Amino acid sequence: MQIQYITKQEELDQCVQAIANEPSIAVDLEFDKNHYRYGFNLCLIQIYDHKTCYLIDPLAKEISLEGLFDVFRDPAVEKLVFAFGEDIRLLHHLGCKAQNILDLANVRSLLNYPPSSLSNMLAEVLGMETDKKLQKSNWFKRPLSEEQIKYAADDVLYLFPLKDALMQQAEALGRLDWIAQENAIFNTAEFIDNSEEINVKLKDKKMLNAFEWFIVEGLLIWREKLAKAVNKPSYQIMHKDLIWDLALGNKYVEDFMKFRGVYRKIQTPNCQRDLENRMEELYELAHKKQISKSKPAVAPLNPEEKAKNKELRAIVDEQKNNYFGPIKEAIAEKYGKEFSAFVLSNTLISQIALQKATDLLPYKKEIINQEAANLGLTIRL
Length: 381
What we know:
By secondary structure, this protein is α/β, with parallel strands linked by helices. It has helices spanning 9-19, 66-73, 85-93, 104-110, 118-126, 146-157, 159-173, 176-188, 202-205, 210-230, 234-237, 240-248, 269-288, 303-335, 337-343, 346-353, 362-374, and strands spanning 2-6, 24-33, 40-48, 52-56, 78-81, 101-103. Strands 1-4-3-2-5-6 form a six-stranded mixed sheet, sandwiched between helices. Helix 3 (85-93) links the parallel strand 5 and strand 6 (101-103). The two termini are 50 Å apart.
């Protein structure tokens, strides 16, 4: 087995030609999500085809991934992966809707293994020890270190033997069709990139009145635009506490050059003026819109809404206590606790109880109905 590090289009084209007719390839991505740079960024692609481990550098100049993405889209080529949720979200963000994905993390759960990392699964199933130190590594770094290259390669090199071991167990238990149903979801699901959304904890927002929140939100949007412009994660541009202090009048823009918690390259007179202008605009707009200082930022539920929520909670509790709780326990007794949590999660129980469980997979429906019948329970799925 050789490791080939690809930085040129000609090398990538040869790689694509080599893997295009393979029945299965092992795939993994290394990415950065608002940690070292702004946004959701692809940093490295790892592919193994039983012969060569390709490490493809998407940051290399004048390299196009479209030919490789065509292989990812090809349903004739199985993409063998592990815990691919964020990876496929990134691929969708880049315009690549990969098909025929076999995620061994789903197989893990359907075989009643507890949630665990790839390295832990390799140790438990194959008795192999791999390096876990570089999970938070800076994958923008170039050149990659020897440690990074080994870590990246390890993420795909052992997926085939892990697949063989797990699928042998699954076949013996008659669960291959269940695995196929779970992984088929990747073919049609839509994965949205939310890396640029402004997220504020509800408990923090509840501490503000409507006027204060209007100013805070406006400053957060200003920070987000600035972060995008300088290609830094927004939390590194200006600390959230500073945003709050400015909005609440605990700190003043005049002292911007003295603030701690501001990215040094934007701590300039020009940026201070821009922030002053933004603050003035926000206050003017808040007064123009007559944003209230007496109303809370998060409106409390009215009596009807409270009553409705109470009614829905009662429905879920009744269904869980009398029907789906016992069914879940029966599934756990028959198939295992981890399997039960995967097939009939508390979230799914709530969705079923409120008749919001759309597209319930056939195998799940069959298992739930079977255990309900065994318990003498009548349910509607």
